[in-house]
Design goal:
Elements lengths: L2 H8 L6 H10 L1 E5 L4 E3 L7 E7 L2 E5 L6 E6 L4 E2 L2 H6 L5 E5 L3 E7 H10 L3 H25 L2 H11 L1 H4 L5
Antiparallel strand pairs: 1-8, 2-7, 3-6, 3-8, 4-5, 4-7
Helix pairs in contact: 2-4, 4-5
Length: 167
């Protein structure tokens, strides 16, 4: 179960066997049913996830009009870093679009990862940078590109998601 997480982490840093064992302890399995929330608007984010199976969407608004602005799928980290780091209520939600299985790490264990894994802080920085660049690209596209162009780019970039998420 943890193998895909470790493969992904090894793309960023080198891990020793003892560090791999720690990660197996700190990242715990969690199932999120289709339609359930990884994080609801107004909740404080207390964990980060790594998606093993499933698709999630990040959305704004909950008054009947949800605006999706980001998707996460297998082999990606999910979470609301703004809420997680500030311990403030989330302004958006993260919802499973299909049955999902993930590995989650609590805020306390993430701090242990940063301290006890040799390159832990480096890993955290690189993951945050990757997410930042992805979100910035999407935000820029939202303001700059017409909807048809954004959709065409989405289909080119995520052809597998087109059949998995509601239109």
């Amino acid at each position: 179960m943890h193998d895909s997480l470790l493969v992904t982490i090894r793309r960023f840093i080198t891990l020793g066997l003892a560090e791999e064992d720690l990660l197996r302890q700190w990242f715990v399995p969690e199932t999120v049913p289709k339609g359930a929330f990884f994080l609801q608007p107004g909740e404080v984010s207390r964990k980060i996830g790594f998606v093993l199976q499933g698709v999630f969407h990040y959305f704004q608004g909950d008054d009947g009009q949800r605006l999706t602005y980001y998707f996460s799928r297998e082999q990606e980290f999910i979470g609301d870093y703004e809420s997680f780091l500030s311990a403030q209520p989330a302004t958006h939600g993260i919802q499973a679009l299909e049955e999902a299985c993930l590995l989650t790490i609590s805020a306390d264990n993430l701090q242990r990862l940063y301290r006890e894994v040799r390159q832990g802080e480096h890993l955290g920085r690189l993951v945050a940078e990757t997410l930042f660049v992805d979100l910035l690209r999407q935000l820029t596209s939202f303001y700059k590109d017409p909807p048809a162009q954004r959709y065409a780019r989405f289909v080119r970039t995520y052809p597998d998601l087109v059949q998995r998420i509601p239109q």
